[in-house]
Specification:
Blueprint (H helix, E strand, L loop, with lengths): L3 E9 L6 H4 L5 E5 L7 H13 L3 E5 L17 H21 L4 E4 L3 H9 L1 H10 L8 E5 L3 H8 L4 E6 L23 H14 L1 E3 L5 E3 L4 E5 L5 H11 L5 E3 L2
Parallel strand pairs: 1-2, 1-9, 1-10, 2-3, 3-4, 4-5, 5-6, 6-9
Antiparallel strand pairs: 7-8
Helix pairs in contact: 2-3, 3-5, 4-5, 5-6, 7-8
Length: 247
């Protein structure tokens, strides 16, 4: 097998405070920009730290809902959603540019991410909200999602994302966090999950089925309880299969 390089991204700036431990193990990050967590100070702090570790920096906008950490789909108008998303990404961009950091990508968070994967109307609203950033940033989206299809049609540069620490349904949606098996916390199982995707372009779903999938970037959540242990294990084991995390 020829050697491969992969991108591992992580959601950060969400108040966990483990970024100094995470950044040596990842190659890109998604910084909360005020919707579900974070503010200008945390954006600047985390952006500078990421730059120091040669970690690519992206905006992580969400529904404006800190109470539910952006994990509940809000019943707001298209206008309200567009306005908050534009404000979040513009705030993020203003802060990191002033800090001398470059925006690499945009990745929506939580319930917004799940909604645009399946809801045509919300996906279009999201893409219209970030249209002005189309030439400035790559878009991280789920494979075979509604938003991926529309984004490609509209000329966005996209990267397909899969999750290291989440289980998948047969339709390639994520198992709901309300279900007990939504997270993969065992380091060896995470490794097996990632390895199957890298080597076979396939994922084993929660039902045990094997489904084809494509990944350009792999996410681990910064608030996964043992995120550091998982990343440490991956950084040790992946090179044994000639898979490198690319900085």
């Amino acid at each position: 097998m020829n050697g491969k390089n992969i991108d591992i991204n992580c959601d950060v700036g969400e108040g966990i405070g483990n970024e100094p431990e995470l950044f040596p193990f990842i190659s890109s990050c998604n910084i909360a920009c005020g919707g579900h967590a974070g503010d200008e100070d945390t954006i600047r702090e985390i952006g500078l730290l990421a730059n120091k570790h040669k970690v690519k920096v992206g905006a992580h906008p969400s529904y404006p809902d800190k109470d539910n950490f952006g994990r509940v789909a809000l019943d707001i108008t298209e206008k309200e959603l567009k306005e908050t998303l534009k404000h979040q990404v513009n705030t993020f961009l203003k802060v990191i540019v002033s800090a001398g950091v470059t925006m690499n990508h945009i990745k929506p968070h939580g319930a917004l991410y799940n909604e645009i994967a399946k809801n045509n109307k919300v996906a279009i609203t999201f893409l219209e909200a970030i249209h002005e950033f189309k030439k400035k940033a790559i878009l991280y989206v789920p494979y075979k999602s509604v938003v991926a299809k529309i984004a490609k049609e509209r000329g966005f540069a996209i990267r397909y994302e899969v999750f290291c620490d989440r289980n998948y349904n047969d339709d390639l949606t994520l198992v709901s966090r309300k279900e007990k098996d939504s997270l993969i916390l065992d380091e060896k199982k995470v490794f097996e999950h990632v390895l199957r995707i890298v080597e076979d372009n396939a994922v084993k779903t929660i039902s045990g089925s094997i489904k084809k999938i494509k990944a350009d970037t792999f996410c681990i959540h910064g608030d996964t309880p043992n995120a550091i242990e998982i990343l440490t294990y991956l950084s040790n084991e992946l090179p044994k299969r000639r898979i490198q995390i690319s900085k």
